[in-house]
Design brief:
Elements (H helix, E strand, L loop, with lengths): L10 E6 L11 E6 L8 E2 L9 E8 L7 E3 L2 E2 H20 E2 L2 E2 L3 E9 L2 E4 L10
Parallel strand pairs: 1-3, 4-9
Antiparallel strand pairs: 1-2, 5-6, 7-8, 9-10
Length: about 130
């Protein structure tokens, strides 16, 4: 078995917001030495209407998702429940006194049985 520490770089990248940076640009990347040369990368950035974040859900839709998982639910039913809860939480975080805020862009991709499917159609210009 290969030791993952042997493959680790001498530095790790930490992306941090730069307050003097143009808000239309990506956050700056800073490298820092890792004490034990382990792979440790973190990304931090403020999420705002000017800088929404993309959340990509990759959902297994293979035949094995029909198997029982927990509490009488199949794997696919349990996954649907978890994703529904996450989407509800994200929507709640966008709800402000002035209305819904555009903080998150969501994509759902299904894969399995040799196929990849877009699970959410893009909004038309009238719906956006």
């Amino acid at each position: 078995m290969m030791d993952p520490d042997r493959l680790a770089p001498e530095t790790t990248e930490n992306v941090v917001p730069n307050p003097t940076q143009n808000p239309d640009q990506l956050p700056s990347v800073q490298a820092e030495k890792s004490q034990h040369s382990t792979i440790r990368r973190s990304y931090t950035a403020n999420i705002s209407r000017n800088h929404p974040t993309l959340i990509l859900f990759m959902l297994d839709q293979s035949g094995s998702m029909a198997n029982d998982y927990s509490a009488g639910l199949s794997r696919s039913e349990y996954l649907a429940h978890v994703v529904d809860q996450l989407l509800e939480e994200l929507a709640a975080r966008c709800n402000r006194a002035g209305g819904l805020r555009d903080y998150f862009h969501i994509a759902l991709v299904g894969y399995g049985d040799g196929e990849i499917r877009n699970l959410v159609e893009p909004l038309s210009s009238e719906e956006a």
